[in-house]
Fold this protein.
Amino acid sequence: MLRILTTILLSVVCSIVSMAQILNLPARNPGALNGSQFVATIISASLSEVSRENMIYTQISAGNVPSFYRNLKPVTSSGVVSGITQSVTYYVIPDYLAVGTDTNYFLCPMSPMLATQIADLTGCTLPTRKMVNDIYAAATVKLVPMPIPPSSQMTTVPVWDTYNDTIRAERGRAMPAHPLGELTGGDKKDVVISNMIYSTANRVVIYGWHTSVGNPIQPMANVHADTYMDYSHGIRLVQNSVIYNGTPTTVKAILQSSTENPMLSDEGSMSQPWYPYGPANLATPVSFAFLRSGANSLQVKVSPDPMATHYNIYLSTNGTTFNAPVQLRKSALTLTALNPNTIYYAKISAFDSVSGQTSGTSYLLAATTSSIPDSTLLVYGFDRSITGNTYDYVIQHGTAFKNNGQMFSSATHQAISSHLIGLNSYATADYILGEESTVNQTFSDSEQVIFANYLKQGGHLFTSGSEIAWDLDYSGTTADKSFFNNFLKASYTSDSPGNQVSTYYSSYTSSCPSTIYPAGDSITFDNGTHGTYNVAYPDVVSAVNGGVADLHYKPSNADLAGIHYAGVFPGGTLPGKVVYLCFPFETIYPSSSRDTVMGRIIRFFGGSGIATGERIYSEKNGLKLFPNPLHDNATLEFTLTQDEDVQIEIFDLTGRSIDKPAQRLFTAGLNRINISGTGLTRGFYFITLHSPTSSRSIPFIVQ
């Protein structure tokens, strides 16, 4: 949504209050290379720069850094914000980035692109010129710079290694009064972020190498190409997440702000406070899926880059701390020997073994290992590049499904629109849209067709986001409006409850007698202080075309915040279901509330609803089927008002008849029959009951 922002949209991976100030890398393998051993692997003059950078990334991403780097050090920077001096404290690694052990480490020059990639991997950023000055001022160990005479050899690894020995000896003389782990400066100049990155294309910006406070040898300059690096270049990682005025935000958000930037920048706001990275001919993967493959295995499915020979898979069980990448050939992207019934999170990057190039790292996806095929697909669509998007909200969605006993896979929305993954293999699709809006689109034209067809064929769609109504109905085309009105069953009313920004952060079921949530229930979502981001503009809608009101914003009793619908969609032949929330599901807090909300949605869709403690069954059109999903057999219950001949028939999602046993006479009253899933492949089906007086159907899932 295009607006003049009156506040920064805030987002951090987790609250600073609860976050340890520790560098986010795996534990170092005791058998990993020390600094001297690593230098021996990269010292050859015939080794390409790309190969060397990939080797550096492999070591650091695997956690091969000295232990004294792990504990970050606080630094405070101040500036005048709206006429008042304000300050913010951030956390930095105690010395420049190195590979190896505490007793044998190598301070490692690298390109700004690689430095940015490592910063992104660890939840960090690079410093600005102002921050470099403040870091040096705060340092308890101030080494004396020792530049060497300029020569063509300054960019070679042997010179880097010689200078590294000099710096380590200088640092050793400061001990034991100042042990390793104290904040250190003066040993290198910094690769910094600056508006100068983009004033001339493909440049590295360097600054610093202080001899005293306020007296750097190197003025800020972008005279070198971004592939240039010499012995003096150092990489200082700064944790991106910070607290400002008691509220979580990020270093990047402050730098992008037109008002707060003076605390961290002496050159104004920075629209892109980072270096672009990733080889031009090896694109960051965007169209991919992470899928259940078995009880102990998961599969990555990706629209392959023709330049890639392999894909690196970065795996995690919490979504924030990742293991060293597993490199697999692009023709065999299956991970095995995993723990059963576990959520795994994954990011991927493309790799070309011929050139040694590695692409940028993808967004986060997730999937569960299980012996039972999953019936739920998470679709990640929150691409919008704004302050606050951490691109990892499959964590909240996936955890809520898993806590309700539902296994799942996930895909990017590009994988859906490119038909890499089909929706019809899944009974339920959860389309995560966050604050996606008009620029990136919520439902694109092609996605509208795909999701409309899914609903027409009896699919169950859950979608949530604070800008869907604004994008499709207020700002959209005729086709956008038609999709929103007919398939999400809603009409845009206003941009925020009571047309007030950053005011309403809860909804409740008052005056919604047919809600799918418990009567009197209340749902609270984030104002930016509860671990996700500030939902300043939650849409207000009205229910249309059979949509049923679920929630109103609190304390308002008029502004509608959620809708559900069950029935046949326009042009469809099978009944489907939709649940639409006008605020992002991932921002609901606490987590127990998210689990309960998801349990109610699952129950409405016909699943187990474990969070509500309810029985596993589906009920529709006077028919009851349990258990649903079924593995082998289920029981169908129905009531007749008189003795009738009844025909039972099973259809798949395409409307094809799968099973049609002979017509039978059933008596008036309650009847029960056995339904066998044996012989049916995993997927979504319908049982239809035909009699002279009625025709009824109910969906079911075979797992």
